[in-house]
Amino acid sequence: MKNLGALMKQAQEMQTKMQEMQERVADATATGVAGGGMVSVTLNGKNEMKTIKLDPSLADPDDMEILEDLIVAAYNDAKTKIEAHVQEEMQKVTGGLNLPPGMKLPF
């Protein structure tokens, strides 16, 4: 029974750490850029777009496809950065514990 109690305590500590990590990640932001900085997109830790900034020179109606491509590229850059941050925070919580493939915590 002594081992079960210790195991339960570890599980509770892990749950608390996971909750704290989720709060830190939710508050994190990452900015992705494209077109040499002409387009920037900022996401929060939940991959929600918070801001988008466009260089006015990109507002050419004849080049809308380029602008659209740059927005997608900037978003993807920000998403990659925020996912890396989430992974880094997860490593801190799990202590490098290798999770099974496809198991993504906390989301």
CATH architecture of the domain at 29-82: 2-Layer Sandwich
Strand content: 15-25%
- Summed over residues and divided by their number, the pLDDT gives a mean of 85
Question: What is the chain-wise order of helices and strands?
Answer: HEEEH
Instruction: Please provide the count of β strands.
Output: 3
Helix content: 40-55%
Question: What can you see in these coordinates?
Answer:
With 107 residues, the chain is an alpha+beta fold. It has a domain of 54 residues: Ybab, Chain: A (2-Layer Sandwich). Helix content is 53%, strand content 17%. Strands 1-2-3 form a 3-stranded antiparallel β-sheet. A hairpin with a 4-residue loop joins strand 1 and strand 2.
Describe this protein with a few key phrases.
107 residues; alpha+beta; Ybab, Chain: A; 3-stranded antiparallel sheet; 2 helices; 53% helix; 17% strand
What's the gist of this structure?
The chain is α+β, with helices and mostly antiparallel strands and 107 residues long. The protein is built from 2 helices and 3 strands, in the order H-E-E-E-H.
Give the topology:
Elements: H1 2-27, E1 29-34, E2 39-44, E3 49-54, H2 64-94
Antiparallel strand pairs: 1-2, 2-3
Helix pairs in contact: 1-2
